[in-house]
Prior knowledge:
Blueprint: H1 9-18, E1 23-29, H2 36-50, E2 56-62, H3 69-75, E3 82-88, H4 95-109, E4 113-116, H5 126-139, E5 143-149, H6 156-170, E6 172-173, E7 182-185, H7 186-194, H8 207-217, E8 222-229, H9 237-258, H10 260-264, E9 270-271, E10 274-276, H11 290-311, H12 314-324, H13 335-351, H14 356-378, H15 383-399, H16 401-421
Parallel strand pairs: 1-2, 1-4, 2-3, 5-8, 6-9, 8-10
Antiparallel strand pairs: 4-7, 5-7
Helix pairs in contact: 2-5, 4-7, 6-9, 6-15, 8-9, 9-14, 11-12, 11-14, 13-14, 13-16
Amino acid sequence: MHYDTALRAYTSKRVEEIESADILVGIPCFNNEATITHVIRMVSHGLATLYKGMRSVIFVADGGSTDDSREVAKEFQLKPWQEKLVSIYRGPGGKGTALRSLFEAAERLDVRVCAMVDSDLRSITPEWVKFLLDPVLEKGYQFVAPIYVRHKYDGTITNNIVYNLTRALYGKRIRQPIGGDFAISKDLARFYIEQDVWDTDVARFGIDIWMTTSAITQGFRVCQSNLGAKIHDAKDPGQHLGPMFRQVLSALFSQMERYETYWKRIQGSEPVETFGFEGYMEPEPVQVNLDGMIELFRTGYGQFSPLWKTLFSKDCFAEIEKVAKMDSAHFHLPTDSWVQILYELAATFHLWDVNRMKLLDVMTPLYYARVASFVRQSWEMSSQEAEALVEDQAVKFEENKEYLIKVWDEKAAQKAAAQVSV
Length: 422
């Protein structure tokens, strides 16, 4: 079903009543009764303290929560000069549709800046509001990505996949391309609304990487802001991140197809201007089950190795085979092999038109192998020291970009030949 707007009639009416605002802060929400009040309180306090003279709206965009998230959000008393919207969005279930409703409200209210923060944050402070909004309001940036002080085992998908690919492909060192807390200008909100993605997977789960990639490739002014520690409902990579691996890679690889001519001409990368929190705080530890991840890889190898052998190059599969024979004490999937795996996987995804999610499904055990290797390598390191490993890995992705272009073009030629023979 096609939805021409994500705003329900009562929400549109409420937006009309408010008429206009300077600042809109959106909080996408789904069953976050335990944390939503804290997030609203911090945002409200930050806006009241730091942007006294401006008219602000806080918009809780709910996905049909079955707990009391909406009720507690409605009951919370905001500071003077602040308005509140609490609404169930229209469209496919997912964060993307929640943000679509936010972008629409931003355009209708003609705001100067629109920010969004996750609803499960326990570490948000009033300063987050300033760190996100100021680069747009004061410096003319159009897209502000977050940086957080995170535990070395929080954000394994970002550390091992998303940061590397975004940096190598698009040439910008945005450390958290799927961070969840962003700020954008009104013209970027309008650009997002006009894109034809709202009935696709982007509306369900690929929104963060889509926003970041679109902002870079369309030439919007991009920066990042350090928000300090991120404490939220962190997930054990061995238990919760299989589905996220598939969703994020699907969004990333689809973007690669869309912006192929852009990323093929990018060489190297450059830092982006960084604002916000200065200093360091030790993040909350994240528990990982190392043996569990190695076991998931081995089980996957037992099931899928005949298929992997047909999908990967000979060298690449030989490395995977070698890792499968290692005992847990010496378990290691080298970075060079990981770069090769991801680049070959991107090219194969490009070759396949159907069953793409199935393809990513059978690759998930390889992600567990990589995370297990990273955990073993960084076991004795502080989170700050482990950051050097992440940086080294990102450089390797950049250095091997020619290999990506080579395998991508080879698979594209295969695809074209197959279509001709049909």
